[in-house]
Design brief:
The protein is mainly beta and 508 residues long. Strands 10, 12, 13, 14 and 16 form a five-stranded antiparallel β-sheet that branches. The termini are close together.
Length: 508
């Protein structure tokens, strides 16, 4: 081969190593000038991390794993989630007992809890009790693009009561969690899971209404290779604050991070990370029957943020009376009670800069309550990115799923595919047009002949960006148990710069 061909191949292989996919043919078509344009290619490797689901012996957890069907692309591949490596060793009778126990746990960690065999059809698995571990997994080949796993846990009674749902996350180095708390009525844990073969070191910073909550305990937290570490945030500070923003960063390595928030009155659920700090935020999927909505926001930069608050409902945008504006001081967490803002109509919250041309980056999340008194149930909605090219959420049931679609700007059109069921059935496809400045809440079209659960995949067809969230409701004992998952772009494809030369044809 010529040296130019070798250098081009080396550059493409380096790109593959960074992005997680590999394709040695030059992407893109020529534009009007004859230059190659960038193309989007499917990733060939994805990672997911699921937090340890149970703090109660009553916990019943379902994992549902799914990859959308796609045309062409890579070879079959695999997609498996395995238990994380235990971070402690059980006590036993002497060193031999400890060694044997450790070997048993290590052996168990090699057995997949969830194993996906083919795109387009979800698979499920169940776990019970408080000892169910965190899961660490990788998907390759055709199973990698858009791979998603939903972890749904039901706890019928006790301090951990609730329906807890989370879309298992990919590893990263930076996470923001508004709407956490160190109040005496709350018990919030940050779950850190390390997917790699070397230890990660993480820092946890807390910010309350008066600024940073200083603590040396949250610095330099070691997360062993392939392991998960839960951290009770109230042990990191002596300050009890109703509204706290958590910032998780890593000094070395990567982690998956999610917050398990438990409330004495409202039950518990997972709080996923907010979209990265930005000037305009969308928080989709507030249920129509929400009895209380609390907005928590944080401005991590050096400047205060002044925001306009709007509820995007079925027919348009309204400003909540008395809360049309929100001032967020730099490095201080701001919280405002919006009460029953939806008033019987599902909606989404839109935060925009109060002053045109001055967009101060912020993060935000909602604490949403359904029911009243001892029949309350809580869920959390973080600010989220648009569905983009494609976004998916698994574990939808024949009854109890609602999809909220929000177009904060121009009108947008999306295609929604309900997959085949985990136990049988045929997929269905429906297109929705969401008018600009509104929220469209729909009951998804259930797959024909559905058996088991199914996944929903949302794809942008035309128009402006659309943000989405899925609400899953499973009432129990008169309590309207529910959980909400947002649907940001799944990152199943990556834009690849065009090559100057077609690498599919190489000179000898």
């Amino acid at each position: 081969m010529k040296s130019t061909s070798l250098s081009l191949i080396a550059g493409t292989v380096a790109l593959a190593a960074v992005t997680g996919f590999a394709a040695l043919t030059a992407p893109g078509d020529a534009d009007a000038t004859g230059a190659k344009t960038a193309a989007r290619l499917p990733v060939e490797r994805s990672s997911l991390l699921c937090p340890a689901p149970g703090l109660s012996e009553l916990a019943e957890t379902t994992y549902t794993s799914f990859t959308p069907a796609s045309e062409g692309g890579s070879e079959a591949g695999t997609a498996e989630l395995k238990p994380s490596v235990p971070t402690t060793t059980d006590a036993g009778d002497g060193a031999t007992a400890k060694k044997d126990t450790k070997k048993e746990k290590a052996a168990d960690s090699d057995k997949p809890v969830v194993s996906l065999k083919e795109p387009g059809k979800p698979v499920g698995a169940d776990a019970s009790g408080a000892d169910a571990p965190a899961l660490v997994g990788t998907a390759t080949g055709k199973l990698a693009p858009g791979w998603t796993t939903q972890q749904t846990t039901t706890v019928g009674a006790g301090a951990s009561r609730g329906l807890l749902g989370v879309s298992c996350t990919g590893p990263d180095t930076d996470f923001w969690f508004p709407a956490a708390s160190t109040a005496k009525s709350r018990e919030d844990y940050v779950h850190l899971t390390n997917p790699d073969d070397t230890a990660a070191v993480a820092d946890i910073e807390l910010y309350g209404p008066d600024g940073s909550l200083k603590s040396d305990v949250g610095e330099g937290i070691t997360v062993p290779a392939g392991s998960s570490v839960p951290v009770l945030i109230s042990t990191l500070t002596s300050v009890a604050a109703d509204d706290v923003t958590i910032h998780v960063t890593t000094r070395t390595g990567r982690v998956g991070a999610v917050v398990r928030a438990a409330d004495d009155e409202g039950g518990s659920d997972w709080l996923a990370a907010s979209v990265d700090p930005t000037g305009t935020l969308v928080l989709p999927g507030i249920p129509a029957d929400a009895t209380s909505v609390r907005l928590v926001a944080f401005a991590p930069g050096e400047e205060d943020a002044d925001l306009k608050v709007k509820l995007l409902g079925k027919t348009g945008a309204i400003a909540p009376a008395g809360h049309e504006d929100l001032h967020v001081k730099s490095d201080m967490t701001a919280g405002v009670d919006l009460k029953d803002i939806t008033r019987g109509e599902a909606g989404s919250l839109l935060l925009t800069p109060a002053q045109s041309g001055k967009a101060t980056p912020v993060v935000a999340a909602l604490r949403v309550v359904r029911g009243t008194g001892d029949k309350q149930e809580v869920a959390y909605i973080p600010a989220t990115a648009p569905v983009g090219a494609q976004a998916t959420v698994a574990d939808n049931r024949a009854k109890g799923s609602v999809l909220s679609l929000t177009a904060p700007g121009a009108t947008g059109t999306v295609k929604v595919t309900a997959s085949a069921g985990s136990g049988g059935g045929e997929r269905t496809v429906k297109t929705y047009t969401v008018k600009g400045g509104t929220t469209l809440a729909v009951t998804p079209q259930v797959p024909d002949g559905l058996k088991g659960s199914y996944a929903l995949t949302v794809e942008t067809e035309s128009g402006g960006p659309v943000h989405a969230a899925r609400t899953l409701t499973l009432p129990e004992g008169g309590i309207p148990m529910f959980t909400v998952q947002t649907l940001p772009d799944d990152g199943g494809t990556v834009e690849v710069p065009a090559a100057e030369q077609d690498l599919s044809v190489l000179d000898d």
